[in-house]
Amino acid sequence: MITFHSEATKLRRAKTELNEGLLVAPFECPERVDLVLDRIRATRLGEVEAPTQYGLEPVLAVHDTGYVEFLASCWEEWKSIGMAGEAIPNIWPSRSMPGARIPEHIEGRLGYYAQTGETSICANTFEAADISKDIALSALGQTLKSGEPSFGLCRPPGHHASSDQFGGYCFFNNAAIAADQALKHGLSRVAVLDIDFHHGNGTQEIFYRRDDVIVVSLHGDPLHCFPYYLGHADETGSGRGEGYNVNFPMPPGTGYGPWSAALDEGLARIRHSGAELLIVSLGVDTFEHDPISSFKLKSADYPDIGRRLAALGLPTVFLLEGGYAVEEIGINVVNVLSGFEAA
Q1: For residue 209, what are the domain limits?
Q2: Measured between alpha carbons, how far is 27 from 326 in angstroms, rounded to an integer?
């Protein structure tokens, strides 16, 4: 299995994250990439290749133009008015402000385009998000060309990024961009399977009214788990998209037995949909010792996940999302990939 990677993904080195009322070092850090790469090389999973550059056209196919322009200019504008720290939103248009206008001041625009307050924008955030998207598209291109599985070592992750908002460490939605481009290459339907602990709220929003992408997500119950608000089982799509959004929310403490049963049901829905390609939003923060999650999967469970995915029989692209138990992230990611390869 070919892995696509660029050292440029590590250009984003945020120093601050709002967690439990404190500003802490972010859980999403460049070292995650090194640990996954080390494991790929130690297990001889396959070659590691640099991505091709695709420009912003694929991004603008799923993201709002004003939002992309904001991300491109935010950091320099923030610094130009003398802000001392990283760009962290501190005000949002609320439910009591219907029809709120986009402010001109950078502080107001930061809140307008932010879902959440934990994710800061720092130097090179846009550049890292742009190359992360290129990694996803390069993996897609390899699979479309060869029919073989591929892995995009994306950083920053993407599944929380909606059409016009960032949050949860995500700025461009890598899986959504790849799915949309796969359709432009002639496929009639694509499946995005999100197995990150946290609901892929951005992916859901982007495709909620479409029937050419089926989105299946296994995640912590949004009544109790970040990012809250979206991800309930009765959110099944709208209009043409009705039936093409499938959520499996599960309670904190869920172990592999019930989790894998939900996976099997989700895979059955994908099989029934007639999808011609599978894009896996590969988060391994379902791990029992992950510091910001609460499922109880073990490292020994992840090869079986890979085997179950392989049994679907579809060309498959894996894109890295979450996983913050830094010591085990490489083991768990490669366990999924090697399990898929061995099936």
Answers
A1: 2-55+123-342
A2: 9
Cα–Cα distance measured from residue 221 to residue 242, given in angstroms and rounded to the nearest whole number: 21
Say if residues 52 and 144 touch (Cβ distance below 8 Å): no
Structure tokens given for 183: 């359709």
**Number of Cβ atoms within 10 Å of the Cβ of 238:** 12
272 located within any domain = yes
As for how many domains the chain has, the answer is 1
- Give the C-alpha separation, 150 to 139, whole Å: 5
* pLDDT, mean of residues 64-77: 98
CA 128 – CA 302 distance, rounded (Å): 28
Residue 64 lies in a domain: no
User: What was the pLDDT predicted at 326?
Assistant: 86
Look at residue 12 and tell me if it is in a domain.
Answer: yes
Radius of gyration of the chain (CA): 19
For 172, counting Cβ atoms within 10 Å of its Cβ (0-12 exposed, 13-18 middle, 19+ buried), the class is: buried
160 is catalytic: yes
- 207, 213 contact by CB (below 8 A): yes
* CATH code of the domain covering residue 173: 3.40.800.20
For residue 334, give both structure tokens: 């490669």
Say how far apart CA 155 and CA 32 lie, in whole Å: 9
Per-residue pLDDT tens digits for 179-214:
999 999 999 999 999 999 999 999 999 999 999 999
Tell me if 67 is assigned to some domain.
no
Residue 258: pLDDT over 90: yes
From residue 281, how far is each of 136, 242, 319 by CA, in Å?
A: 11, 22, 5
69 pLDDT exceeds 90?
A: yes
Catalytic residue among 159, 160, 198, 199: 160
Strand, helix or coil at 151? strand
- C-alpha 139, offset from chain centre: 15
| Percent of the chain that is helix, strand, coil (3-state, to 5) | 40, 15, 45
What average pLDDT does the segment 127-149 reach?
Answer: 98
